[in-house]
Amino acid sequence: MTPTRKKRALIVAALVAGIGTATAVAVVSMNENMMFFISPSDVLNEELPPDRQFRLGGLVVDDSIKHADEGLQVQFSVSDGGHQVPVVFNGILPDLFREGQGIVAHGYMRNGRFEAHEVLAKHDENYMPPEVQKALDKTGHNSGAGQ
Amino acid sequence: MIWKTLKIWFHKLGSAPSFYRFARVVSPWLWFGFAVTAAYGLYLALYVVPPDYQQGDSARILYIHVPAAWQAMFIYLVMTILAIIALIWRIRLTEILAMSCAPIGAALTLVCLVTGSLWGKPMWGTWWEWDARLTSMLVLLFIYIGIMGLYAAFDDRRKGARIASVLIIAGAVNIPIIHFSVEWWNTLHQGATIKLTGESSMDPSMLPPLIWMVISTKLFFGAALLDRARNELLDQDRSKKWVARQVLETSS
User: Fold this and answer.
1) Predicted model pTM
2) How far is it, in rounded angstroms, from Cα A15 to Cα A38?
3) Which residues of chain B have pLDDT under 50?
């Protein structure tokens, strides 16, 4: 390399190092705010101010879904394996909503219940044909549905 | 011997008329390859592959969404390498190639965002959420558009290319952020299904169309890049002698 090119290469390297460091610092310092949702354990361990809106994420607990006799209201519990939080929601649930499914609910805590105004289903990274799922169910293997 | 021939060929390719002729011969083959692999890949994706156990037929959109997303990021990496070469060695052809990458990358990023949104509505229950993966992919689109705009803002094309190259290198930090966003943070977007290391969480019966579509997007990129670079070269050199000769040659 000629000296001019060497100099240019150094400038490019400095640019990469500078931008890389700046981004790394920004990303690390904003880590908490980059979280799309928080888990039930975080909700129970960290005292959140009331009326503070946030997103709660976790798995829908088996046999916890209760539909109201009238209207769209539905109640269910969300768990992260450790703790559970009851959720109430008034609205239309996404197609993928079911027991054991990962969901993200947006709302706030009130009287120990999470009142959601939006419930989103979180899809997992597993892709398989229905027959494979049936075969897995038969042999008693958990497919890992819902995370 | 072979090495020497290759080296001479490579150096020759750097000259405008040689590249022009090379691109003109190669690009139709790449377009042909793209058409065949895309048609076969889409046939497999829509008719042969079984539906997903949870999502049903909606899962089939991944055969466009995932290859488009990968290709959009791959193009950025190619563009970054070209931009570094363009800044250090000042080879005009690499400047042209780097600048020709941006619109193709922007188009594929848009395809990725639109297909993802169409899938998100029935599956997640929303068209758009500001989670880390979706946001960083949107930022990629804006970076691509910014590169195109910066390049176009200068009357001196070579100067514009060098300044846009700096933006390309700076914007490259977004690529690892997109890739790792689903690991570093909680996101609505699911984690990686296909992993370079370790077991992929997709049934083997669903993989072939994905592989064909990935090949087809690579060929599309090659074909579109050669055509764009060829046109850019022709435009920049429109008053040069070799272009006049080329025009006479092809029209007779």
Assistant:
1) 0.89
2) 36
3) none
Which residues of B fall below an 8 Å CB-CB distance to A?
A: 50-55, 59, 62, 84, 87-89, 122-126, 129, 131-132, 166, 169-170, 172-173, 177, 184-188, 190-193, 201-203, 205-206
pLDDT at A128 over 50: yes
pLDDT at B236: 92
DSSP state of B90: -
pLDDT tens track for A92-102: 888 888 888 88
Q: SS3 letters for B135-201?
A: HHHHHHHHHHHHHHHHHHCCCCHHHHHHHHHHHHHHHCCHHHHHHHHHHHCCCCCCCCCCCCCCCCC
CATH of A36-122, one of 3.40.50.300, 3.30.465.10, 2.40.110.10, 2.40.50.140: 2.40.50.140
Domain boundaries, chain A: 3-32, 36-122
Domain that holds residue B208: 27-49+60-195+204-238
Both tokens assigned to A26? 């920004």
pLDDT tens digits for range A131-147: 777 777 777 655 444 33
Contact call for B125 and A93, based on CB within 8 A:
yes
Contact, A77 vs A84, CB < 8 A?
yes
ipTM: 0.81
Taking a C-beta distance cutoff of 8 angstroms, is the pair B113, B133 a contact?
Answer: no
Question: What is the pLDDT, as a whole number, of residue A46?
Answer: 74
Give the nearest partner residue to B125 out of A120, A124, A128, using CB atoms: A120
**How many domains, chain B?**
1
